[in-house]
Design brief:
With 370 residues, the protein is α/β, with parallel strands linked by helices. The chain has 13 helices and 17 strands. The chain has a five-stranded parallel beta sheet. A three-stranded parallel beta sheet has the order 1-5-6. InterPro entries: ACMSD, Amidohydro-rel, HIT-like, Metal_Hydrolase.
Length: 370
């Protein structure tokens, strides 16, 4: 079984000067300390300490080998979106970031699959950006779950999502930019509570506004963090739809009627939560996602799925089969490719994939019992 992690972040080695493309004084950049550690920066402000795996593909692939992950679908760190910048600057910034993402993944093309980012503050620019990126080799796009006050059901955003469907670009939605509130300042509560609420809000707005009726049904849409609090509170939302006309006024179906319109990752960290998630979404709509390489991510990728009571077929679907379908990865996992195919090099070992000494032989992963 090919193991595919669909929720893994990258922050390319962007300099302070590069950050000036986006904003004059507080653009995002990476301070590399030269000892395997670094700091995500916003201008002169330290944002978050990070490790070399965030920007070094060789280190990343070595860690993927150690943890049993065959392929990562990689996306930029949300700090890099730049939705509040001037459109022209944001478009140039996204093109630069997307080029660096392609360069990053080119170091291990059989292992790393890129998603682009786009200037969502302008629909036309965003559509042009994703078209360029898909033509250049990106498999989809990574979006924040809102653009200022505009949620995913806003007309400009649904226009972009429709364009993605026409381009065949998968869409990963990640919560970000939670409202500042002193009640969530402590204990990372903005991440623990705010992010899950943001994702639930996004899914419910798509459902209750009727946006799912307007967006093409073949849009490949994925929400991070197990869909946030949505799966657990779906019954509450359905109950409200049935009992209150102000809830159902714009939607012909209750929220549960749109479960076949999106996917979620498996980053829920608890066997009971995973059981509920699969019960609600179905085993064909949950994909392995770890939030690598950040500390809140799953430390042992796929362990929760493997330890679950799911059938072998369901586990294989969650661990990789669903991701291969959603992101169109048959060229990487299909027959005869030997998890990358002849001539593709495992960059962590400099050994051709499938050759003697590789961890993949004749298209079969030798770590099947992990």
């Amino acid at each position: 079984m090919t193991v595919i992690d669909v929720h893994a972040h990258v922050f390319p080695r962007i300099s302070r000067a590069d950050a000036g493309v986006l904003r004059d004084h507080d653009g995002p950049w990476l301070r590399d300390h030269g000892d395997g550690s670094g700091m995500m920066m916003l201008g002169d402000t330290e944002y978050r300490p990070v490790t070399r795996a965030l920007w070094d593909p060789a280190v990343r692939v070595a860690e993927m080998d150690a943890s049993g992950v065959d392929i990562q679908v990689v996306s930029s760190t949300p700090l890099m979106f730049g939705y509040d910048a001037d459109v022209a600057r944001a478009a140039e910034w996204c093109d630069r970031v997307n080029a660096q993402m392609l360069d990053f993944c080119a170091q291990a093309p059989d292992r790393l699959v890129p998603l682009c980012q786009v200037p969502m503050q302008d629909t036309e620019a965003a559509c042009e950006s994703v078209t360029r990126a898909v033509r250049a080799g990106h498999r989809g796009v990574h979006l924040g779950n809102h653009v200022g006050p505009h949620d995913l059901d806003h007309g400009a955003v649904t226009e972009f999502l429709t364009h993605c469907a026409h381009e065949g670009a998968a869409v990963l939605v990640h919560p970000w930019d939670m409202p500042e509130n002193p009640r969530t300042d402590d204990y990372m509560l903005a991440w623990l509570v705010g992010m899950t609420a943001e994702t639930q809000l996004s899914i419910l707005r798509l459902a209750l506004s009727g946006a799912f009726e307007r967006i093409p049904a073949d849009l490949r849409l994925l929400f991070a963090h197990g869909g946030g609090s949505f799966p657990y509170l779906l019954g509450r939302a359905d109950n409200a739809w049935h009992r209150r006309d102000i809830v159902r006024k714009d939607s012909p179906l209750p929220p549960s009627g749109y479960l076949d319109r999106f996917h979620v990752d498996s980053a829920v960290f608890d066997p009971r939560s995973l059981r509920l998630l699969v019960d609600v979404m179905g085993s064909d709509r949950v994909l392995l996602g770890t939030d690598y390489p950040f500390p809140l991510g799953e430390a042992d990728p796929g362990a929760l799925i493997r330890a679950s009571e799911l059938t072998s077929a369901q586990k294989n679907a969650l661990l990789g089969g669903n991701a291969a379908r959603l992101f169109g990865l048959d060229d990487l996992v299909g027959p005869g490719r030997a998890r990358g195919g002849p001539g593709v090099v495992n960059r962590s070992t400099n050994v051709p994939v499938g050759a003697a000494g590789s961890d993949r032989t004749n298209g079969t992963i030798t770590r099947e019992t992990r």
